[in-house]
Design brief:
four-stranded antiparallel sheet, alpha+beta, five-stranded mixed β-barrel, 14 strands
């Protein structure tokens, strides 16, 4: 049995398509998992074809999950805080600080929630990849308020896919690095120095500020953080936060209409792109045995 040698030109083109399609997956906070597949050895013949096939299946699955989520969002009525029931709810309101705030490390902004990541770009060409040094989230309780009342929110563990990244900094070797970034790296033992200044680094920061309008879909549940001062609200023992096994905990700074309009084309792209990618991978697998 003779195995066909992969065509380098075809492999290069497929790799390019693969990278573009997986950019969608990285927007779902699966960045590390996606890159493990993306940077598989593209000249590895059958191994690359299998990775291509599995990557397509992953995209197809995530696309279907997005469609399922969008249908749930579209069919769920937006509740007023005073009249919301226990269980899955959809709310829209303005953020108010509860008792305290925190400071976002890269921007210095006052916020109630912050998620940061620090990565280093390594390799070159097709082998260039982002190695994550640190991914952390920190938050304090805050209130979501509408014209009927307010409810406690704990944003930790939420899906923030459609919450804009307020800080995204890519630093190439020799560029200028701010004191805030240096201090953060040194505080958390992240090596950033190189012989020509600093390494190629990427910093991302997403934060939620008091005064922002937020769309939240999550589970209303009994709160362990009840406060006597909230008795007049009528929901002093209720909060929305992450719970093991819950159907959805989703936070966005976009309205429901904006969210669904943006998501529809991306979901279709992932479903059909995943089918195409898997078909191409399957074709390459079968062609190896001709």
């Amino acid at each position: 049995m003779h195995l066909m040698k992969p065509n380098p030109k075809i492999s290069a083109r497929v790799t390019t398509v693969f990278l573009i399609l997986f950019h969608t997956i990285t927007s779902l906070d699966n960045r590390l998992a996606a890159q493990e597949i993306i940077y598989a050895r593209s000249g590895d013949g059958i191994g690359f074809a299998i990775m291509l096939f599995l990557g397509g299946l992953m995209m197809f699955y995530l696309g279907l999950k997005k469609i399922q989520r969008d249908r749930l969002i579209a069919n769920m009525p937006t509740s007023k805080i005073r009249s919301m029931a226990m269980g899955l709810v959809e709310l829209y309101g303005k953020i108010r600080a509860h008792k305290e705030t925190i400071t976002a490390p890269f921007s210095g902004k006052e916020c109630v929630y912050c998620r940061v990541s620090v990565g280093e770009w390594r390799g070159s060409g097709k082998r260039r990849h982002l190695r994550m040094h640190r991914q952390r989230e920190k938050g304090v309780l805050f209130n979501l308020e509408d014209d009927t009342g307010k409810v406690l929110i704990d944003a930790r563990g939420a899906d923030l896919t459609n919450l804009k990244r307020d800080v995204s900094i890519k630093l190439h070797q020799g560029g200028e690095m701010t004191d805030r970034l240096k201090d953060y790296c040194e505080k958390h033992n992240i090596e950033w120095k190189s012989t020509i200044g600093h390494r190629s680094m990427e910093f991302e920061e997403t934060f939620i500020e008091p005064g922002e309008d937020l769309y939240i879909m999550g589970t209303a549940q009994h709160s362990p953080h009840s406060d006597k001062s909230d008795e007049h609200i009528g929901h002093k023992k209720i909060m929305i936060g992450y719970a093991q096994g819950q159907r959805m905990f989703y936070i966005s700074d976009k309205s429901e209409k904006e969210l669904l309009n943006k998501s529809a084309s991306k979901s279709a792209f992932m479903v059909f792109g995943g089918i195409g990618l898997s078909a191409l991978g399957l074709f390459m697998i079968l062609s190896q045995f001709k």
